[in-house]
Specification:
- It contains 3 helices and 3 strands, in the order E-E-E-H-H-H.
- With about 170 residues, it is mostly helical.
- The chain has a domain of about 80 residues.
- It has a 3-stranded antiparallel sheet, with no helix packed on it.
- A hairpin with a 4-residue loop joins strand 2 and strand 3.
- The radius of gyration is 39 Å and the shape is rod-shaped.
C-alpha cells in the first residue's frame, strides 16, 4: 500500500543542510530559502507518518484530577418507576412503595453528592417522592371514600322498610 504524499509546504532541504525547500505536493521545486529553525533542535517524532518540517505535538499531560466515574442511582429510578406505575395503574401500595424507595434514593443521592458526583439522581428521587405520596394519598382517600360509601349503602339497604312488612 502506497504512503500518502506530504502536503505542499516548506520542508528541510534533503540536499542542502540549513535550508528549506518548497514541496509542491508531488515533487521538490528549485525554490529554496534559509531555514528558519536551523538553530532550533529538531522536533520530537511522534507515532505515525512524520512529515519533515512539521511540528509534532506532544501528548497532553494527564489531568490533575481523574475524571469522576459514572455512578447510577438505581434506587431513585426504581422509586420513580414505582410511583409512576401507581399513577398509571391506580394501586395505593405501588404509589407508597415508590415514595419510600424514592426517599432511599434521595439519601443515596446525598451520599453521592458528598463524593463529588453531580449526576446523582436527586431530581428523579424528589419527583418519585412527590408522585408516590401525593397520588398515593389521593388514591387512599378515594378507596376509603368508596368503602365508606358502600358501607353506607349497605346500612341503608338493611334499614329499608317495605310497605308490606310489619313495623318493627
Amino acid at each position: 500500500m502506497a504512503q500518502p504524499l506530504p502536503i505542499a509546504g516548506w520542508y528541510p532541504d534533503p540536499e542542502h543542510g540549513g535550508q528549506d525547500r518548497w514541496w509542491d505536493g508531488t515533487a521538490w521545486t528549485d525554490t529554496r530559502r534559509p531555514s528558519i529553525d536551523a538553530a532550533m533542535p529538531a522536533p520530537p517524532r511522534g507515532p505515525g507518518l512524520y512529515i519533515p518540517g512539521e511540528t509534532v505535538l506532544q501528548a497532553a499531560p494527564a489531568p490533575a484530577f481523574p475524571p469522576t466515574p459514572v455512578v447510577r442511582n438505581n434506587l431513585a429510578l426504581i422509586g420513580f418507576i414505582l410511583s409512576v406505575g401507581g399513577f398509571v395503574v391506580p394501586v395505593v401500595v405501588n404509589s407508597f412503595a415508590g415514595g419510600i424507595v424514592s426517599i432511599i434514593g434521595l439519601r443515596r443521592s446525598r451520599q453521592l453528592a458528598g463524593t463529588g458526583i453531580l449526576s446523582n439522581g436527586r431530581g428523579i428521587s424528589i419527583a418519585g417522592i412527590l408522585i408516590g405520596f401525593i397520588w398515593g394519598g389521593i388514591l387512599l382517600l378515594l378507596v376509603t371514600g368508596f368503602i365508606l360509601f358502600e358501607l353506607w349503602v349497605l346500612g341503608i339497604a338493611a334499614n329499608v322498610q317495605y310497605s308490606d312488612s310489619p313495623v318493627i
